[in-house]
Amino acid sequence: MMQIALADLDDPAVLELLRTQVRLARAATAGIAHALDELALRAADIELWTIRDGNALLAAGALQALASQHGEIKSMYTVSAARERGVGTAMLGHIIAAARAHGMLRVSLETGSGNYYVAARVLYRRHGFSECPPFADYVADVNSAFMSPNLPRA
Fold first, then answer.
1. 8, 19, 71, 94: which has the highest count of C-beta atoms within 10 A?
2. What is the CATH number of the domain that holds 47?
3. What is the pTM of this model?
4. DSSP 94
5. What is the pLDDT of residue 33?
């Protein structure tokens, strides 16, 4: 049974998952990736969660507050063995619920534009995200796809 909890950034398994995500993201974008490493994910304006099935670490995902009503989904990653099992959908739903609980009316994300990120973009579109202009400090970049929906009031 999958369980979502705040991440322990001192847990070696969590650190390894995050390092894998950053390494793969950078490899897929010729080194130009906006994935946050474990140090950046310790910032006060970021909440990071993990999904586990028993002792197996399946995924991580974070929410960063950009403004009082706008958040950014960061560092969503599901291990390859857990893909197509609803893990990404569960994490995305959890992050959106957290954003709503914080009073956010909008969440945005930056993901890669290349083939490695096709499944991620499909997941986000399936849940109401569509392309949007760069937000926050981002600038248009051939390696990036920017996506956002407005969050309906709960």
1. 71
2. 3.40.630.30
3. 0.92
4. H
5. 74
